[in-house]
Amino acid sequence: MSEFLVIVESPAKAKTIEKYLGKKYKVKASMGHIRDLPKSQMGVDVENHFEPKYITIRGKGPILKDLKTAAKKAKKIYLAADPDREGEAIAWHLANSLNVDVNSDCRVVFNEITKDAIKESFKHPRPINMDLVDAQQARRILDRLVGYNISPLLWKKVKKGLSAGRVQSVAVRLIIEREKEIQNFIPEEYWSITGEFLKGMESFEASFFSLDKKKVELSSKQKVDEVLEKLKGKTFIVDSVTKKERRRNPALPFTTSSLQQEAARKLNFRAKKTMMLAQQLYEGIELGKEGTVGLITYMRTDSTRISDVAKEEAAGYIRSTYGDDYLQKSERKEKKNNATQDAHEAIRPTSVLREPSSLKDSLSRDQLRLYKLIWERFVASQMAPAVMDTMTVDLKNGSIIFRANGSKIKFPGFMKVYVEGTDDPVEEKKDRQLPDLKEGEEVIKKQIDPKQHFTQPPPRYTEARLVKTLEELGIGRPSTFAPTLDTIQKRGYVALENKRFIPTELGGIVMELILEFFPEILNVEFTAKMEADLDNVEEGQVNWVQLIDDFYQGFEKSLDKAEKEMQEVEIKDEPAGEDCVECGNPMVFKMGRYGKFMACSNFPDCRNTKAIVKEIGVKCPKCEEGNLIERKSKKRRIFYGCDQYPSCDFLSWDKPIPRSCPKCETLLIEKKLKKGIQVQCMQCDYKEEPQS
């Protein structure tokens, strides 16, 4: 009989930990929470200090029965759920269900699932931290009060299946406001003048910088012509040469937020997928002779702190692999955000010696890609800065100055391993080396190229950009970002198109109602302050009942007003102007989760539906009879196909345009690049200059 019972959250984790602890320990999984508020009712007694009513989650009865049986046989019970407030709440619910004294040394926490970390954590068990439990409970009750009061109101006034929540509503508002900015944006014209110059046989580029020692806004072709008229001859004099040495520091190790952002940029992972894979890497992977091993530290964290042991191991690895010059000489001090909890370490590999290449046979393709990203980021964070030689050259022609900038890597430092991605749609400029130029030298103008541009509206939010914005505003916490993004899409408030969020008509209607009657729910400052107050509950500085009571007093008044004054919104079906091919009744436009679609007005007797077709004005190059239309895949990705499908199966992920290739007469397409759009041929090597 096992003397000790250890309860964790998942079977994968249980298997790994049991192997490390030995025969005296029996490790079982609770499969997450075993108790929660009921789904069928509010479950919060507003009149009795917001007392929650917890019930055993449906389907968890057999698991709880099994745990109770094992608990009766055990000499001691250890509760080893995840090291965050959610995990603390799970441990508290288990303690209540299994009659474990919450003040006894029953709680065990660890940041990584490795043999040494597990054994060390069991040497230091502690009581359940009720401040953490209260913080989780307050958040859960607060969200229940908001969701279970506003959602039924929306069902009654708008349509069934809608919901509202503190963090999700703010996220939708940000997306809607960004869309309004884009719609109201008025492009402004501006120009640039770029010159190609020669020093001997070497060519290099420089751009117009100043006229008569003053900056000139090139806002029109007239301004450009005025500058070009002042150029005299082909000779330019090197007016000044400035050389500097610039140091570039590595990115800090991953937090939950930065991992989600970078995985989106570099691996094209959704936030939900990133967290699922990270959970697998944390809980343990079977590594042949080594058995099951946790490969990364806990993946829900807002800290970039690294343990001394991990730093020492990384230093040894960097020294032996790259040499002393690549080792970080002094530790960087991070500026901490006020909202940072710093409860546990950054996300890092449990052992830097476990190189990604050694795990190819043990991990799935996506697991390996994410592990490699985490491993490289951590190693790079402990390496020396990169050193760049930069050079700025001013070329003079009369009163006109053209400026050229160049740089080259003098010492790669951390860049040998990893360089952080960027949200900037314009591709990062590559290092451009200039010829060895000296003041007073002459260079020859080869050509001058003036170009017209227009200012662009702010970009729509990608998942990475939205997570970054929410974090900067103090909205939500590491564990909430992925579920929030998932919820706002499932409710049909926003949709992803070309990996960017756009609000739906339904999202706009719901947010207008919430803004009118519950403005505090959509107020960014209010929501951020509430998040900070919930963090203070965790620190034991704020009473959770008082916090909720302060919120509820104002919220209850808004609720009463909305019940009386909110008008019903009728989302009418619009005639589509065509008849159903199956029953002959008129087709109508309906509102769905992902926007409008066409459906038969004779529903439910006839369930025929049809996507709204968007023609792009291009004939199908395959059958030469049909027209190409814009379609959407099941994953909401846009592609282009023939309207004669299935008799014609032409498909293109890139948008065809109504022009033929001048070389082979095949269809031209618009290829999306990081730095803009490039027109190119579907068949031959013909390409046009990219347009931003």
Please describe the structure with a list of short key phrases separated by commas or semicolons.
692 residues, alpha+beta, six-stranded antiparallel barrel, four-stranded antiparallel sheet, 17 helices, 34% helix
Question: How are the secondary structure elements laid out?
Answer:
Elements: E1 4-8, H1 11-21, E2 25-29, E3 35-36, E4 44-45, E5 51-52, E6 55-56, H2 61-73, E7 76-79, H3 85-97, H4 115-121, H5 130-157, H6 166-184, E8 189-199, E9 202-211, H7 221-229, E10 235-248, H8 256-267, H9 271-283, E11 285-286, E12 292-293, H10 308-322, H11 365-381, E13 386-397, E14 400-411, E15 442-454, H12 463-473, H13 481-490, E16 494-497, E17 500-503, H14 505-517, H15 519-522, H16 524-538, H17 544-565, E18 574-579, E19 586-592, E20 595-600, E21 609-610, E22 614-619, E23 627-632, E24 638-642, E25 651-652, E26 655-660, E27 667-673, E28 676-681
Parallel strand pairs: 1-2, 1-7
Antiparallel strand pairs: 3-6, 4-5, 8-9, 8-15, 9-14, 10-13, 10-15, 11-12, 13-14, 16-17, 18-19, 19-20, 20-21, 22-23, 23-24, 24-25, 26-27, 27-28
Helix pairs in contact: 3-5, 5-16, 5-17, 6-13, 8-11, 8-12, 9-11
